[in-house]
Design goal:
mainly alpha, two-stranded antiparallel sheet, two-stranded antiparallel ribbon, 47% helix, globular, ABATE, Znf_CGNR, CGNR zinc finger domain-containing protein
């Protein structure tokens, strides 16, 4: 069962691993959750040679530091997504400038395409960040950059791409839309 893949984009699904509606908003509470997130997205995981009997102390320390780095990067990614569309490009450029990324030519449908890739040996946070930037560039290339939004239902700040025909969607999900409409209705009836 998939737990983290919602939009299929690391950029959005990683940003959305902090959910204010939950009693405990952190959806990456421990290294095991980070490993599940990576596995669901097909991201390679560091192989430190797991000994018989479970995870070694060194592996636990490694994954704990990887988790801290991913959470820190998620905060920076969320800040990029929170920008207005007019400022988001500059914010993405600043975010990208700090990444250890290189350019590679990949074959996509028989045509060469220039892609950002993480260098060999990059940590989990850097690999996820480079993939997020690559996906956001793809979103922009297909014309959905201005349709990239954050949910308008407070306290939710989940990111989504508005694929509705009129392009006026405000909420990440029916759950948030229903809560926002119910709150507005209650407010109207109180006055």
């Amino acid at each position: 069962m998939r737990q983290y893949v919602d939009t299929g984009l690391v950029a959005l699904d990683l940003a959305n691993t902090w959910d204010e509606y939950l009693d405990e908003p952190e959806r990456l509470p421990d290294p095991a959750a980070l490993r599940r997130f990576c596995a669901e997205f097909g991201e390679p995981q560091e192989d430190l040679g797991e000994p018989a009997g479970g995870e070694s102390e060194g592996q636990a320390d490694f994954w704990t530091s990887e988790l801290a780095a991913v959470r820190e990067m998620r905060g920076r990614l969320r800040a990029v997504l929170a920008c207005e569309a007019s400022e988001r490009t500059r914010a993405l450029a600043r975010f990208t400038a700090g990444l250890p990324a290189r350019v590679a030519v990949e074959d996509v449908g028989g045509a060469p395409v220039l892609r950002l890739v993480a260098p060999d040996g990059a940590g989990t946070a850097d690999r996820l960040a480079v993939r997020a930037v690559r996906e956001l560039l793809d979103v922009a290339a297909v014309g959905d950059w201005v349709r990239l939004r954050l949910c308008a239902a407070s306290p939710c700040r989940d990111a989504f791409i508005d694929r509705s025909r009129p392009g006026r969607r405000q909420f990440c999900s029916t759950r948030c839309a229903n809560r926002a409409h119910a709150a507005a209705s209650r407010a109207r009836h109180r006055t």
